[in-house]
Amino acid sequence: MPVELESLLMESRVFDSPQAFREHATIRDANIWKESDREFEDFWARWATELSWFRKWDRVLDWKAPNARWFVGGRLNASVNCLDRHLTTPRRTKAALIWEGEPGERRTLTYWDLYRQVLRFANALKALGVKRQDRVAIYLPMVPELVVAMLACARIGAVHSVVFAGFSAEALKDRIQDSSACLLITADASYRRGRLIPLKRFADEAVAQCPSIRRVVVFKRSGMEIEFSAKRDLWWHELMRETACECPPEEMDAEDTLYILYTSGTTGKPKGIVHTTGGYLTGVTATTQWVFDLKENDVYWCTADIGWVTGHSYVVYGPLACGATVVMYEGAPDWPDRGRFWKMVEEHGVSVFYTAPTAIRSFMKWGAEWPERHDLSSLRLLGTVGEPINPEAWVWYYKAIGREQCPIVDTWWQTETGMIMITPLPGITRMKPGSVTRPFPGIRAELLNVKGERVEEGGGYLAITRPWPAMLRSIYGDHDRYVKEYWSKWKGDIYFPGDGAKRDRDGDFWILGRVDDVLNVAGHRIGTMEVESALVDHPRVAEAAVVTRPHDVKGEAIVAFVTLKEGGEHNDHLSGEIREHVAKKIGAFARPEEVIFSHDLPKTRSGKIMRRLLRDIAAGKVLGDTTTLADPVVVAELKERYEAQYGA
Ligand code: PRX
To answer: Is 473 helix (H, G, I), strand (E, B) or coil?
Structure first.
């Protein structure tokens, strides 16, 4: 991280949006920040008015820190806002989803098509006994049925809990158990780089330990042979054949839960982040329109998997609530070759493209010749999210993909915030490679030191000092943890996101990364403790500590330090086995890059593992202060072993 920090501190290039873009941008007046700050409740209420409500709210905000209720007394339905209200306009026949499967097939669903599918599936859910606020787990690849399933839950007031299809059976089981979901929706398999991933098999493994699940609905994606329980399992296509295409929406309270999405924290147990309906839709609508400068004829492509929050907010709810045309792709960016994304941009005429720094670094490594083979002139705005972007990758993105014609919005936010919080407004913000610039209008973000004092310039902790509509309301089943993890670092009304940041002389924010035990690998959030628990679960492992080191493409890579049980012999085979064990327990994206064996781990005299030292070893740096170390020999030995294995 310090290397990264240094380069950010030295970055001084600035870029203005191209004149042609600025002239047509939705937001051209910089007064917007001042105005929205002065009367922030009115600001959000104006956005909420854009939505369709069954009953208008009585009060915009009820804030008894750290508990917020937005649009109190209002009633609405998220699926109506994403579908029905477009049907009385020309959007009725507009493409809502343009989907490409990895093998190359294409499907386009208009708003009308999507509406009909959602209603049918909503009826199927009802017929299966799913009721308001019941939890429904969804473990699907990036297929239109995933969007249909989410909106169908919303239609009948059920709470969806989407689990990224890259998670293992075990991770799926934990999430189902925590939410006590009554139904699981999955597919026979998913495609990844031409291979079939047996999702249904993982789902079966998980469900065997989940007594709350009564039925499993299976979407046939590939025709792969699967085990099918006649008593428990149902085919998606058979259910859809039998259901009616009429389903009045449930009138939901603005504060009813729309979904739960699990994310990693500092303990081994993932947190079910709770998002509600009215405020969330307001927040994602506002940010989709202004951050992406959305226009009626845009073709919008956010490459995130819907299994993560970026997909929830900026593939599904934000863009559909805005009536956008959304491109959705099932597979890998380098399948069948490294030009897949650019071929898609050209063929679908994508105009707004939103992706992650880790992807940009891969594109950069693969070389500009891939995008150069395609006509990318339809692009007019680029975005990035998920982790700090190094200025070099930013500039490459700007030139090779954006041809210096597209502003880049580097958007900071989190699963918990639900919506983009700090970001350029593309028509007016002066962009700086690596900086997320300023809070979105209506949002108040600051830098604080440990004591909670404001830092005007320099480094500190990022803090959100005012409630915002899409904010998380709780951690499912553990409100105490919600209070403790997010609202207790300073006074109880200041939100602590867990990130360190820097503010420059102009007041712009530069995110430096997590300051807690949360890792960010390729834009995926993984808890240190989750990986460590997975490691010690291996029968040969006695103790483990996990850190990250900088990585060219992933941003950070996981390095695991492992002590074996008595008499254990280590070798490459065991190292591979242990790495696989983590992949099996959590998912392939959490597989450690390296495993270092040691007869002991460096600890303080009070027995705490000194991760700082391990981080230095993993990064190949000179060792830091070892004066508090119980056994300095351990460190020297570890460093030697690391260098022998991986080079200094
Ligand atoms: O550390 C920040 C980083 O990703 C974390 C949130 O992860 P998650 O909840 O998985 O959501 C990711 C997608 C919204 C943050 O605490 N992060 C997110 N966006 C940025 C970022 N770091 C730097 N720059 C960003 N634009």
So the answer is: coil
Substitution candidate for ligand 1 out of 162, 302, 525 with most atoms within 8 A of CB: 525
Helix axis angle for 40-49 and 278-291, nearest 10°, is: 90
User: Which residue is associated with the tokens 């693969």?
Assistant: 366
Cα torsion angle, 500, 503, 504, 506, sign:
positive
pLDDT value for 647: 64
Q: Which residues contact 633 (CB under 8 A, 6 or more apart)?
A: none
Residue 410, ligand 1, Cβ within 6 A: yes
| Domain architecture of the chain: domains with CATH | 19-500 (3.40.50.12780), 518-646 (3.30.300.30)
Let me know: does 27 contact 36? Beta carbons within 8 Å. Answer: no
Give the pLDDT mean for 536-551: 94
Best CA proximity match to 93, nearest among 108, 107, 76, 111: 111
With 60 as the cut, is the pLDDT of residue 311 above it? yes
Inter-residue contact 307 to 163 (CB < 8 Å): yes
52 vs 323: CA distance, rounded Å: 13
Q: What is the pLDDT of residue 180?
A: 98
Is the overall model pTM greater than 0.85, yes or no? yes
Q: What is the pLDDT of residues 407-436, one digit of tens each?
A: 999 999 999 999 999 999 999 999 999 999
Q: What pLDDT, on the 0 to 100 scale, is given for residue 2?
A: 41
SS (H, E, C) 306-324: CCCHHHHHHHHHHHHHCCC
The contacts of residue 195 (CB under 8 Å, 6+ apart) are: none
CA 458, 460, 466, 467: dihedral to nearest 10 degrees?
A: 130
Q: Tell me which residue of 310, 403, 308 sits closest to 354, measured CA to CA.
A: 310
With 50 as the cut, is the pLDDT of residue 530 above it? Answer: yes
Q: Which residues of 272-284 are buried (b: 16+ CB within 10 A; e: fewer)?
A: bbbbbbbbbbbbb
Pocket test for ligand 1, best of 5, 520, 530, 554 (most atoms within 8 A of CB): 520
* Closest by Cα among 311, 341, 271 to 523: 311
